[in-house]
Amino acid sequence: KKSIAQILEAGWHLLTLINEILDLAVIESGTVSLSPESVSLDEVLLECRTMMEPQAHQRGISMTFPQFDRPCFVSSDRTRLKQILINLLANAIKYNKMHGAVVVDYTVSAPHRIRINIKDTGAGLPPEKLAQLFQPFNRLGQEAGGEEGTGIGLVVTKRLVELMGGAIGVDSTVGAGSVFWIELISTAAPTLAVAGGEAAADAPPLLPRGARPRTLLYVEDNPANLRLVEELIARRPDLHLLTAATGTLGIELARASLPEMILMDVNLPDISGIEAMTILRDDPATAHIPIVALSANAMAPDVRKGLQAGFFRYLTKPIKVTEFMDTVRMALELAGQRTAEESPALVPVPPHAPVARTSGLRILVVEDHPVNQEVAKQILERLGHRVVIAANGHAALAVLEQSGRGAFDLVLMDLQMPVMGGLEATAAIRNAERGSETHLPIVALTAHAMPGDAERYLEAGMDAYVTKPIDGVELTRVIDQLVPPDAESGMVPAAVATSAAGRPAFDERVVRARLGDNAQLFEKVARLFLEDCPARMRAMRRAIAAGDGEALREPAHALQGAAANFSAAPVVEAARQLELQGKNGDLSRSLPAYHVLAGEMQRLRRALRRASGRPRPTAPRRQRKQSHA
């Protein structure tokens, strides 16, 4: 195990070295793409703090960050600024003493200049080593030390700071520590460029009664720019805004929600906006969506490159309100034309956005990956549901326990998660439901479904499954099947509740008469029936999951015959429905029919248990007179 750990550690070190060499090569060649814009310093420092504090805590190092009395903005590429600060913070932690401290602050060093200081309590550096600090591959005598490094990170940091019009330096005292500082150009907060005739703009279109708003997806990592676009979209009641902070999440949200148009920042923290657009263009499901670039790269070659790459329009920051709103209108018009004109055979796009019959549900999403969490949350909230997130099965059980029975209408459960996986969590939920009248629908979330997986999920107590990336239409269909409209939270489906109100679960008097009024025999037969039924129900679930009509017929027929002995008409009819579906080979409605049967079985089970523990019912007076005649 130790050897494997060493090999893995060496592999990660080599990968880091390769990445930093490639980064330096791109910078030195002059081909690095920067997008200088107004960036909130307090927001970036907060993100860096969140990322680096766990590493500091492992070494017992305290971290102190400045409190901003008012917003502070610098002109920089947001992604590259985070790279610079994280590199400096990582060095301050790595070369600090155990239980040391890292202090971050900022000052106005000159007009229109902001200096950010990162102070550590490490060993410090003598003057002769400070002179060699920004040389490639020079680790200043630390090559044989216990801390890994490449000697390239500070070189990359220096080049990036200078490319953004800033400066970098260090002050160090042997035995006391070092202060690394960077200076950047201060700037004003992002603003909207309002034209003179803006006040006379046309009134925004109203949303027709009963119509759903059209969706606009904005892929942007700068919160300040996000807020500006949110302000503009708020003027359009016919639009619903989705946001994504990375290109990868933007692609997943686009595939899941199929927005009418996409706004795409060109410089994103993971992949470029052009790469993300290319992926969406190559996907038949999203190829029809107009994608508009919105970038601080305002030079003519940048605009030309973006339009040639395939953007519908290329807008530059600061945002010009009239230009922005006109572009949104044109993109939506184009989206409407494409939807009406393009043949489904050529563009396999779902015929409509997901429209749920059931809305307003409270849904627990159990998922550890933040991208999948956000995708599920956006889809469900767009459908009008309320969402709570749990990062693993253990956290989900805690949420369910604290919320109380009936607090949630449905659970979306990932299968592979740290701490506790989905199958184990499902088993715990089903164990907690034993003896109660509730059945909480659980839908498995899986990246792939191999042969036999569906049966395994249903056997574990799950009610259905959807594959990732999540398709909004498919998820809507599954939710509508499991929780029909007007179903009560945490209870059996509405169809079952209706039948329960209209008919008894079984005819107790007929059954007892059939058994000669023998209470012990009644209890024995009821017990045998209740012990046999779970296996029949599991067999039906496996058959439905496998799409095997022949395998569905046998357990449905057997359950129908057994229930007939108790004159349990609701169960008999529900089981007969499933038997006929299996016989005809049409299983398209078998899952809803199965849940109707499951609800009726719950009702019959409770009724039989109550009847087994009480005296037999007294015959009506008229029947007693007849018996003595």
Describe the model.
- Strands 1, 2, 3, 4, 5, 6 and 7 form a seven-stranded mixed β-sheet that branches. Strands 10-9-11-12-13 form a five-stranded parallel β-sheet, sandwiched between helices. A five-stranded parallel β-sheet has the order 16-15-17-18-19, with helices on both faces.
- By secondary structure, it is of the alpha/beta class.
- α18 runs antiparallel to α19 and α18 runs antiparallel to α21 (590-612).
- It is 48% helix and 16% strand.
- The longest helix has 28 residues, at 519-546.
List keywords for this structure.
629 residues; alpha/beta; five-stranded parallel beta sheet; disordered C terminus
Secondary structure topology:
Layout: H1 2-28, E1 37-40, H2 41-58, E2 62-64, E3 73-76, H3 78-94, E4 101-110, E5 113-120, H4 127-130, H5 153-163, E6 167-173, E7 177-187, E8 192-193, E9 214-219, H6 223-233, E10 239-244, H7 247-257, E11 261-264, H8 273-282, E12 291-295, H9 300-309, E13 313-316, E14 319-320, H10 321-341, E15 362-366, H11 370-382, E16 386-390, H12 393-403, E17 410-414, H13 422-433, E18 442-446, H14 453-459, E19 464-467, H15 472-482, H16 494-502, H17 508-514, H18 519-546, H19 549-564, H20 569-584, H21 590-612, H22 621-627
Parallel strand pairs: 2-4, 8-14, 9-10, 9-11, 11-12, 12-13, 15-16, 15-17, 17-18, 18-19
Antiparallel strand pairs: 1-3, 3-7, 4-5, 5-7, 6-7
